[in-house]
Automatic annotation (TrEMBL):
Protein name as catalogued: Uncharacterized protein
Length: 182
């Protein structure tokens, strides 16, 4: 039985598809960067402040790296996508949280989860671009590998922050360990 194979996409069609893909990720990075900056402002004095500040800086740098790739590839930035991403981040702030006038502790969990999803998406982007870099010399494979490693580290940091926030939000206490008789 012959399974139909899809032809590879060449030239202008590949460039157009790459442009759409990169612009979609730039929109997500715009939203993620805004969320990270806002979280730094809200949690600066908390136990999360230092980690969030470092993450926000890296997320902004990653967004700039992605914007640079669009420029290197002569891909126009789709401003309407950036505007929609900015608006989506603002709308995401308005969510029922069990309180009328102030944020609940649940907000930090949801926001950390959103940042983690963004970091996962970013890692997937860098992974997807690695084989493309073999066909597109303007994409630097070594730089993509560095960005991928940083995204993976960001995921680990966000997992750690999330675990700490769960304990705090739900006021969990570590279970006492059973002592063994000597």
């Amino acid at each position: 039985m012959n399974v139909p194979t899809r032809k590879s996409v060449d030239g202008p069609a590949r460039h157009r598809m790459l442009g759409i893909y990169l612009n979609d990720h730039l929109a997500g990075a715009t939203s993620g960067s805004a969320l990270a900056r806002r979280m730094v402002q809200e949690h600066r004095a908390s136990a999360y402040g230092g980690d969030l500040d470092k993450l926000a800086t890296e997320i902004a740098q990653d967004r700039q790296a992605l914007a640079g790739m669009l420029a290197d590839l002569d891909v126009p930035v789709r401003r309407y996508k950036l505007g929609l991403a900015w608006l989506a981040e603002r709308i995401g702030r308005v969510k029922p949280n069990g309180r009328l006038l102030r944020r609940s502790g649940l907000a930090v969990l949801v926001e950390l989860e959103a940042l983690r999803l963004g970091a996962q998406g970013k890692a997937s982007l860098w992974r997807a671009l690695l084989p493309v870099s073999a066909l597109e010399p303007r994409l630097d494979a070594d730089r993509l590998e560095q960005l991928l490693r940083r995204a993976e580290q960001q995921i680990r940091t966000l997992d750690s922050l999330h675990a700490r926030a769960v304990v705090q939000v739900f006021r969990l206490h570590p279970r006492p360990t059973a002592r063994t008789a000597s």
